Amino acid sequence: MPPHPDGGKAAKALWRTTSEFLRSCANQVLMATLPVEIINVAHGTRKPLDEAVLLLNAHQDAYRFTILDSPEAIAFQGGSAECFQTAELFQFLKDQRKVLRGYHPHLVAFVERRLDGSKWGNLLASADEDGNGDLTGLGAVTWFQIPQILGAVPEAVYGIYQLLSLAIRFTVGAGMIHQERRMCVFDFKRQKTDLLPIIQQGELCPPCTERLKQYVDQDQLVAIRSTLRMMSQIALAADPRGELDRLLLRANRLPRIFLSHAREDKPFVEQLATDLEQHGCRVWFDKWAIKGSDFVAKIEEGLRESDHFAIIISPSSVASSWVAQERNIAIVLSTESGALQLLVIMLQDAEIPTFLKIYDPIDFRNYANAAQYQAALEKLLQAVSRPAAGAERRDNPEPRR
Ligand SMILES: [Zn+2]
After folding, report:
1. Hey, what's the torsion of the CAs at 362, 365, 367, 372, to 10 degrees?
2. Do both 153 and 121 map to the same domain?
3. Are residues 223 and 305 in the same domain?
4. Are residues 213 and 337 in the same domain?
């Protein structure tokens, strides 16, 4: 081929546009719920981090935050006892990615020491970039000096701020931080003290919102913004610790339901999951776990975090060995700790496995009929609402969406 008259500039521009387009497609496809995993480096997990993760997962489903157990990470000491360099943390996370089984697109290290970057010292957080300036999905955050900066505001609020803003940067890509002051989460913070007013504001500026809109759906955008408002609500409360405790209590009480189903029944399950979430439930089904090769581990994790196991009965699910496997784990968990309640959802006539026959099935067989679907949905919602949670939910209608 003859050399291109413009020295390949047009081709390069086309390549950039195409790769940008492909990346946005990949994100669109993935954007059911993206996993963001957290590794504590040189220290064990902290209560503020656990609290932040609980609230983040209860209030939005664009991202699913998980704290990983890693003895290697706790043992990792780095080159200096006073501080960590972002480069050494990112290298450590890259090595972890190779060791951990499965799909780990986003890993965030939390440290207690001071955090220094290659250009700036004493950072709050950093997102790793490759040679082209694209984000690699690795991040680092420090708790250093945070109690002094936040005063009476609990550290969990900072955990929410850092995790959600990194997660958004991972989806949207590089260049999210802006120099102009717009009282936005993505304002460049010249000083650490700029942090608290921005947390109290809890907003995304219009250009940042427009960018995010290209990567998340409308429900997710609303949920992300409402999570930021919750963060600001805690930070501005007269008693921030009391407000945080109130929200934690409520998040703990949201029913968490695992939907065990055959692949063939997915359209129904997606509809049901959406409706349950709109009624304040947290729903687990394999919408993102499928990406990973450690499918069984993800299912176990989903089951351990759920308090209801709903098995969707149809000829396909009765014949599915996956459903049988999930059911076996669920039965062990429910008899071991009593923490998991079983529910039977009849989607189509099929032989109910013997030991499930003691449960009164919730009848969704006529789900195509709107009134009958609604009646069955209400029955299911009653079954998952424990009395203690019901009273509070009526007092505090959940403004999640
Ligand atoms: Zn902004």
Report:
1. -60
2. yes
3. no
4. no
| C-alpha 209 to ligand 1 mean position (Å) | 7
Q: How far is the CA of 184 from the centre of ligand 1 (A)?
A: 5
Phi-psi region of 304 (alpha: psi -120 to 50; beta: other; left: phi over 0): alpha
Question: Left, alpha or beta for 7 (phi > 0: left; psi -120 to 50: alpha)?
Answer: left
CB 145 within 8 Å of CB 41? no
Structure-block tokens of residue 335: 């008899």
- How far away, in angstroms, is 144 Cα from ligand 1 center? 25
Say how many CA atoms lie within 13 Å of 395 toward its Cβ.
Answer: 7
Q: Which residue is it, tokens 């499930």?
A: 356
- Give 208 Cα–ligand 1 centroid separation in angstroms: 4
CA of 188 to the centre of ligand 1 (A): 9
CATH number for the domain spanning 211: value is 3.40.390.10
Residue with tokens 């955090």: 115
How many domains would you assign to the chain?
2
Calculate how far, in angstroms, residue 207's C-alpha sits from the geometric centre of ligand 1: 6
Ligand 1 midpoint to CA 18 (Å) = 26
pTM: 0.68
The alpha carbon of 212 and the centre of ligand 1 are apart by a number of angstroms equal to 10
pLDDT tens, per residue, the chain with 401 residues: 444 455 556 555 555 554 454 444 444 433 567 899 999 999 988 999 999 999 999 888 889 899 998 899 999 999 999 999 999 999 999 999 998 888 899 999 999 999 999 888 999 999 999 999 999 999 999 999 999 999 999 999 999 999 999 999 999 999 999 999 999 999 998 888 999 999 999 999 999 999 999 998 888 899 899 999 999 999 999 999 999 999 998 888 888 899 999 989 999 998 999 888 877 788 887 754 445 556 667 777 778 778 899 999 999 999 988 888 888 888 877 777 677 889 999 999 999 888 888 889 999 999 999 999 999 999 999 888 743 333 333 333 344 43
Q: How far is the CA of 185 from the centre of ligand 1 (A)?
A: 6
Q: Tokens 């996370």 correspond to what residue? A: 93
Per the structure, the complete domain to which residue 265 belongs is given by: 254-395
Give the distance (Å) from ligand 1 centre to CA of residue 204: 5
The answer to whether residue 303 is domain-embedded is yes
| Region for residue 239 given its phi and psi (left: phi exceeds 0; alpha: psi -120 to 50; beta: otherwise) | beta
CA–centroid distance, residue 341 to ligand 1 (Å) = 43
